[in-house]
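Example record

Each entry pairs one chain with its bound ligand, 3-methyl-2-oxobutanoic acid.
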Amino acid sequence: MTPRQATPPRAQPSRQAKPLTAPAVRARKGSGPPLVMVTAYDAPGARIADEAGVDIILVGDSVAMVVLGYDDTLQVTVDDMAHHVAAVARGQQRALIVGDLPWMSYHVSVEETVRNAAALVRAGAQAVKLEGGRKRLPMVRGIVDAEIPVMGHIGLTPQSVHAMGGFKVQGRQADAARALVDDAIALAAEGCFAIVLEGVPDEVARLVTEAVPVPTIGIGAGPWCDGQVLVFHDLLGLEDRVLPKFVRRYASLKADAVDAIAAFADDVRAGRFPGEDETYHLTDDVLRALTGDGTNGALTGDRAIGALAGDGAIGAHGAEPRTA
Ligand code: KIV
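Structure tokens for the complex follow.
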């Protein structure tokens, strides 16, 4: 087996490609280029990912941390996730949309799990993802029986942050590594169409990948997986406070955004914005009528400005441009 990233995939223009399905993702085990998954949480993010030609968009519960400002992923609910899935679904055209089941949405009963998975599908997801190994098998079976494709997620499972004692690499000892292989085999046998491997040594990821008949998608799991996933904000440098070892930044959008907004602020304060190109004007006729050519009771001076401002369509900030 060679590392799946040995021949890096080139993004294909999404407009020419057919929508990807869960069975098509499952069929990529052992064939085709490595799978590419990124997270997205809103319509513009989904359009960017889709146009870049990714295979799968994961509406991850990482939204809690990278968008909503929480310290972990435990704070988001099914309603929160459905809100973001719906936004992504409105922006996406080709990539498979996977909705992340949040903490406690699949822990209580199979019935509740299926209902919550269905809520994400109704919001626009074409598959769901849940964290955990063999103890989740009844939930996986329930979701599969409801005809909803399920993606597994083992290794560093962020929803277990308190049980794990922090966000720590998993499977470092032989027993733990074997348990991960057994978990993956069981999840695949129960019907998962793909499995995320997060935060595990590459040797363990390789063992898992070779042991299961479904694609593994790695994050912090080395090159031996059948695909790779990164979080949108990490990949694009929108998040610049932490840089985990496994992240590669392909852009510095946070820095670019700060520069852009600072330039806007400078322009406003210096009277350079808006300029002529960014300004609406009345036609000469209307202007004459307003500013006093003697017909139709035209208004002049301050009265004209007051009338303009009063229609609510333009600001009421006085006659002089704020260019000082
Ligand atoms: O929520 C998420 O972003 C994830 C990925 C890290 C796989 O689960």
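The first helix runs from residue 22 to 26.
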